[in-house]
Write a structure and sequence with these properties.
Helix content: 10-25%
Shape: globular
Number of helices: 4
Radius of gyration: 14 Å
CATH superfamily: HIT-like
Structural class: alpha+beta
Largest sheet: 5 strands, antiparallel
Number of strands: 5
Order of helices and strands: HEEEHHEHE
Bound molecules: guanosine-5'-monophosphate, zinc ion
CATH topology: HIT family, subunit A
CATH architecture: 2-Layer Sandwich
CATH class: Alpha Beta
Length: 115
């Protein structure tokens, strides 16, 4: 399948996984938008929340619940923000669902409405 994150998962594209278990893996974003910017990627390929099975949801939640225990080593002990871009308005650019993990600094929460 022609999916960057599946290729990273199976080693076709080399990448340092900062965390991995049976459900998910975490890599550094190649184009960071904060001092610390990681991606938590479910190992199973699906594009959207609307395509998730019950087991996909449980697997992603198991992954999310690992983050507090990793926060110190990932430089996120002061807090972090999780973002899932879905579809065109959100600017989703990789169509394999992933959770952005942003932190390592105080984060603005800007008004995104166009003025
Ligand atoms: P999206 O826009 O779909 O929410 O986020 C996709 C993210 O994947 C972007 O932040 C982008 O920088 C990141 N990304 C795209 N290709 C690669 C890659 O090959 N390696 C890594 N580590 N991140 C990538
Ligand atoms: Zn994929």
């Amino acid at each position: 399948m022609d999916c960057i994150f599946c290729k990273i998962n199976n080693g076709e594209i080399p990448s340092e996984k900062v965390y991995e278990d049976n459900d998910v893996f975490i890599i550094r974003d190649i184009d960071p938008k904060a001092d610390k910017h990681y991606l938590m990627i479910p190992k199973r390929h699906y594009k959207l929340i609307s395509e998730m099975t019950e087991e996909d949801g449980a697997a992603l939640m198991r992954g999310l619940k690992k983050i507090p225990g990793l926060a110190d080593q990932l430089g996120l002990k002061n807090g972090y923000r999780l973002v899932i871009n879905q579809g065109d308005d959100a600017g989703q650019s990789v169509f394999h669902l992933h959770v952005h993990i942003l932190g390592g600094q105080a984060l603005d929460f800007p008004d995104l409405r166009k003025k």
